[in-house]
Amino acid sequence: MSERRLRPSAVTGLSACAALALMAPLAGASSASAAEAPAELYEGHVQVDRGQADDPETLQGQVFDDVNENSKLDGDETGIPGVAVTNGVDVVQTDGEGTYELPVRENMTVSITQPSGWQVPVDSDNFAQFSYNHLPEGSPGDFKYGGIEPTGETPKAVNFPMIESEATASAKQDCAIASDTQAYDKTEMGYARDGAVGDLADRNDYKGCGVLLLGDNVGDDLSLNDELRDIYSEMNGPVRAAPGNHDQDYDSPDDAHALDTFRDQFGPGHFSYDVGKTHFVVLDSIEYSGNESTKKYKEKIGEEQLEWLENDLKNVPKNAHVVIATHAPIVDHQQVIVDDATDLYDIIGDYPNAVTVGGHTHTQENLIAGEQREEWAAEGIDELPNTQIVAGAVSGDWYSGGLNADGLPYAFTRDGSEPGVLTLEFDGADRSERYTVRNESDDHQLLLGVNSPEWREWAQEAQDWQDADKAGTEPEAISERVVTRDDLKQGETWLTSSFLAGTSDARVEMSFDGKANVLAEHTQPGKGEALAKGWEYTDPYTASQNLRTSGSVGQTSSHLWRAEIPSDLDLGTHSAEVTGTDRYGRQYTETIRFTVVEDEAAAAAASEKKLTKDGFDTQQEKKVDEDDRQGLDSDEARKASN
C-alpha cells in the first residue's frame, strides 16, 4: 500500500538557508508530532499516458489521490469523484472512480477544477500543475518565443494527481492577487522582486489559496517568463497565472494561438479552482487581432469562454463566493472596458456573492454593487450589478518616476495610488479585501496633500512642459504643502486624501489644528453622475512627483476625498489629522503639516525648503509612452480616454 509522504508545508519554496532557519526549532520535536504536520504543497506534474487512445475523438483519464506524491497513478491509489474536468468549453465531473471522458477539440487545454480540501501539485517554481495542452501539429508557423510543440495524437489517458489539504479546506482564506508585474527588462524584474513580490515572499497567510498573477506578467518579451517564474518561486503557496495583452504571441496569425507560449509555460488561458467556500474563475479578457504590425486587440471575453463559464458555474452553489478574475476589468470608474460586459453580468446574475477583479489599467479601485455612472449607463449598465475591484499593479506606474530610499521607483499611479498587491479575505459568509502598498504595512492607506489654485496653475504648466517632451525651461517646482493666504481667501483650496481602501460608502473626516472634524466629500460618489476630471479632482501628493518626472497624471481617481481648508488660517505651519473608515469599520489615521504664507514669492521660498527636505530623487525618469500611460491599448479604450 502506498504511504503518504509528509513534509512541513511552511518551508516549501523557500531558499535552503531560510528553510533551515525555519526547521531549526523543530529539531527537538518528537517524530509523532512531526508526522502530524499536514502535507500541503508538493512538487509533481500531470501524468500523460502516450499510448494509443481507444477513441481518438475522446479524451479519458482519472483524477486520483496521489498518496505517495510521485505523480503516477499507482495500482493501489484511488480516484476522486465529483471533480470538474474541462476541454475549455465542455465541463464534466468525474464518476465514482474518479474517471472522466471529454470530446477532443483540435486545439484545447484540458484542466481540472481543484476542489476545496485538495491541492494540485506545483512545479519547481511553485506554479500549480493542473492542465494538459492538446495541439497535434503544434503552433502554426515559427513562433519567436516557442509556442506549443506538436503534441501528437490523442493520448491513451491524461491523469490528474492531487493530495488532501487542510489549507484549502478551511473556510478562512487569504488570496493574494498580483497584477501587472509587467517588467520590460531584468532591471524592472529586480524592482518587482525587491518590492511587492518580496512582500509576498515574507507572508505566509495565503498558503491555501496561493497567489494569482492577474496578467501583463511581463512586458511583451516572453523570454522574461523565466525571470518571472524565478521571482515568484519564493511564494508560500501555489502560484497561478492569468494572461494579459502583454503576455501574447504577437506573431500568432489569430487569437486562437495568441496564448500558445503562455499555455505552454503557465497553463490555460481560462480555468477555475476552489478554496474554502470560494470558487475562483479566471478568464482571458483579451481578443487579439492577429496583426503583428499593430498588435491591436479588443477587451472581450468571447462566446466560447462565456459558454464555458455557464458550464463551469453549473457545478457551483448559487450562494457561494465567486471571484471572476480577468486581466482587463469589466468596468472601471471611467468607462465600461470589456465589450461583452452585459453578457458576462447576465451569466453571473444568479450569484449574488460574485465579485469581479481586474488589472490592466494600473489603477486601484473598489467599485461596489449598486453604484451608477453616466458612462456605464450609456453602455447599457444602469447600475453596477456586482462589485468590481481593480487590483492595482506590482509595477505601479510602469516602474516610472524618481527612486525612493530603497532604490525603487516611486511609480505613483495616475489615480493617486502606489505599487502593491490586493488580498481577498474570506471567512465563511464574509468577504473583505485589502490593498498592501509595496514595502509598507497594511495600515498605510492615506496619501495627503493640499490642492490649491496656485498648485493647479503649476500643474498645468508642468503638464504642458511634459507634453512638449520637456522642451524649454521646466516650471519652478512648488510643494503641494504650501498655500498662500490669497488662495485660502478665494476658496477652492482643499485638503485631499487618496484613501486606498476607500469605497463610495467609506467615510473620511478631517480636523484642522485640533478643531472639530469636518466630513470630506468623495469626488466620484457613483450616484449616476458623469466622470469628474480635472486638476481640482487630482491628488496633488502623487501628481506633483509624477509631473516632475514621468508626467503620468490622470486627473481623476475613484478613491479621492477632499474638504475645504478654513479660509481664516493664520500665517505659519498648521496640521490636519485625517481619519478614513472603510466599509468594514477599519480606521486609518494620518497627519499632514502644511504652511500658509503671504504671497507667491514666499510660497516659492517655502517650497524650495520643503522639496529639499523631501529629498525626491529624480535620477530615474522613465518616460511612460502614451499607449502604456493609458493602460488600455484597444482602439475603443483610447477613444474613450481621449
From TrEMBL:
Residues 604-642 are annotated as: Disordered. Keywords: Signal. It comes from the Bacteria. Residues 75-139 form the Calcineurin-like phosphoesterase N-terminal domain. Pfam families: Metallophos, MetallophosC, MetallophosN. GO terms for molecular function: hydrolase activity. Residues 1-34 form the signal peptide. One of its GO terms (biological process) is carbohydrate metabolic process. Residues 390-588 form the Calcineurin-like phosphoesterase C-terminal domain. Residues 211-363 form the Calcineurin-like phosphoesterase domain. Residues 607-642 have a biased composition (Basic and acidic residues). This is Calcineurin-like phosphoesterase.
